[in-house]
Amino acid sequence: MRLAxxxxxxxxxxxxxxxxxxxxxxxxxRPPQVRFRPISPPTANAELLVxxxxxxxxxxxxxxxxxELLSMAMERTASLDPGSTSLAAARAGFPGQARFARVLNGGxxxxxxxxxxxxxxxxxxxxxxxxxxxxxDGTALWVIxxxxxxxxxxxxxxxxxxxxxxxxxxxxxxxxxxARLYVAPPDRIVQELSLTPGVNRWVDLxxxxxxxxxxxxxxxxxxGQVVLLFSLFxxxxxxxxxxxxxxxxxxxxxxxxxxxxxxxxxxxxADHGLRPVTRFPLFEGVSREHSALMAARGxxxxxxxxxxxxxxxxxxxxxxxxxxxxxxxxxxxxxxxxLAVVLDSPGHRSMLLCDTCTHVAIGAAxxxxxxxxxxxxxxxxxxxxxxxxxxxxxxxxx
Length: 398
What we know:
This protein is an alpha+beta fold. The chain has helices at residues 23-29, 44-52, 60-71, 82-92, 112-120, 254-271, 284-297, 311-318, 335-343, 346-352, and strands spanning 33-34, 38-39, 56-59, 99-105, 126-134, 140-148, 152-153, 156-157, 159-160, 166-168, 170-171, 178-184, 191-194, 201-203, 210-219, 224-234, 278-279, 319-320, 324-332, 359-366, 376-384, 391-392.
């Protein structure tokens, strides 16, 4: 893996030059930077978590996000919604695509969660963070965050002034052949910029106050992958986290969720001045099948080795001519939360806002679990037909 060397800046104070400033006070008032912060595990539980995940390393920024989420969990049954977890990671300046989970148990270290982390964050290096609150009756509420460490980024200021310009400098492993930079301003559609690993990419899109969501997507021979995801706050401080509420609501109906998501997609596109897309029932089946396979494995992915090469591959097998697919996938407790997960990623948001797409197929499926509330897995296929509308191949099943 080819990664950038750390850039170190030393500040020297010469004897006799006057009194030294108080660096600790300055650090306390200075906003965090967007950067990884790998450190030694600070507690026995942290050391156990790091030792249980192959390639695990403790990240101070990710741990800060976990601590803030835990501090807002006013109830033992408080749930972690996508908006809160995204904001907590952004406030901490953590630059990876982080996932978080909460576990309420009798007080023992939640070793069962490690299997889920290993499955969903398989990578040579995995950033980890954790916070725990123990109650008087001995029960404990754990918040754990994890993210595959797929790239290196030079430190960026988290907070910017209007019209500031920043240089984004990223190093990717050699397995990625291309990279794209997506910036989602608070008042405009997603801006897609070219990005050359190892070379500064100057960004000067910060003319409106508010949060800017930034994403780097690396592409290999098969597909693109989110390698960095963070926020920059321009002209105003980041919003504070709201108190987290308890788990509630019925188990979602996958078919009702699909109908809701079709409606939300029309509204989203209209809000951005785009024409609506036409529902394409022929590909709804393969979209639902992909969501069901993701749910069975408990993994959100565009391809599932040993199960499927993806919706586009399945669609090509049942219909001709071939379509162009702009795909987003997500899992959450509800359809609204699944949509929030997609919109939080500028690259995936741009898929839903594809201005040349004419059709869409959405498929949803529930996770087959009994020991906890099931998640809803969703697949969005925004479609373009450059060779004409695909038609069913009637003997495709032979």
